[in-house]
């Protein structure tokens, strides 16, 4: 049996490194663990922390191909973040120019959630814990 311990990280390739770095650090509050420019690939690699844990690798590559990323497309559906207060989180996003969908109720758990999008239209979810 395979004994997985946890999710180690999530890799995201962005089309505008500066814009995505600002979004994930300033707006969402991730901390920079390390940042490197890889000359041979003309690519940045940014390792981001959330709650003291390594979570996201943010990459830039010249001219990455576009991918369908709506929540109902085949493949990874979305990345969800738990928050204590959904209303405060949505207000914070709005104050930073990020639009979120109307808040919904999960019919199975009764918890509130909403979707919003990163600068490359990657669907992200806030889920009230």
Q: Kindly report how far apart the N and C termini lie.
A: 31 Å
State the domain count. Answer: 2
- The number of helical segments is 2
Indicate the overall shape: globular
Describe it.
With 129 residues, this protein is an alpha/beta fold. The protein folds into two domains: 7-63, 2,3-Dihydroxybiphenyl 1,2-Dioxygenase, domain 1 (Roll); 71-129, 2,3-Dihydroxybiphenyl 1,2-Dioxygenase, domain 1, CATH 3.10.180.10. The chain contains two helices and eight strands; from the N terminus they run βαββββαβββ. The protein has helices spanning 17-27, 86-95; strands at 10-14, 31-38, 43-50, 53-60, 79-83, 104-105, 112-117, 123-128. β6 and β7 (112-117) form a beta hairpin. The chain is globular, with a radius of gyration of 16 Å. The protein starts with 9 loop residues before the first strand and ends with a strand. The mean pLDDT is 91. Residues 6-129 form the VOC domain. InterPro entries: Fosfomycin_Res_Enzymes, Glyas_Bleomycin-R_OHBP_Dase, Glyas_Fos-R_dOase_dom, VOC_core, YwkD-like_dom. GO terms for molecular function: metal ion binding. Pfam families: Glyoxalase (PF00903). Keywords: Metal-binding.
